[in-house]
Amino acid sequence: VQLVQSGAELRNPGASVKVSCKASGYTFTSYDIEWVRQAPGQGLEWMGRIDPEDGGTAYAQKFQGRVAFTVDTSRSKVYVELKSLRSEETAVYYCSSGGFGDWGQGTQVTVSS
Coil, strand, or helix at residue 79? Predict the structure, then answer.
C-alpha cells in the first residue's frame, strides 16, 4: 500500500489550497480515506473522511463549510480543499487509509503573509 501526497504549499491568509493523495497497492474503493493534520507542537487533529466508492463524506464539526473532500476514482486520488486559510492552520496534512494503518508522507501547508 502506498499513499503519495502532493508537495508543500505556501498560501496567504484568506486563500485556498488543495492537497492530493494518490493511493496504490490495494483496491482503491475498499477503504475510507481519512484526513488528519498536525500543527507545529500540537497533536494530530482529525478533519474527516471520504468513501472513495461513493464519495460520501464526514467532516469534523470545526471544518464543516470550509473544507471539502473529493475523489477521482479514475486516478485513485482523493483531494482536500481548505478555504479561507488562517495562519494558525499552518500544519502538515496527512491522508490515511486502512483504518489509519497506512499513511501518506504528509504535505506541509504554510499560511503566511
Answer: strand
- Nearest-angstrom CA–CA distance, 43 and 56: 26
- C-alpha cell of 109? 501547508
Q: What are phi and psi of 87, to 5 degrees?
A: -60, -35
Tens of pLDDT along 22-75? 999 999 999 999 999 999 999 999 999 999 999 999 999 999 899 999 999 999
Task: Map residue 87 onto helix, strand or coil.
Answer: helix
- Torsion over CA: 110, 68, 45, 22 (sign): negative
N- to C-terminal Cα distance for the chain?
37
Element (H, E) at 9: strand 9-11
Assess whether pLDDT exceeds 90 at residue 98.
Answer: no
Q: How far apart are CA 10 and CA 43, in angstroms?
A: 21
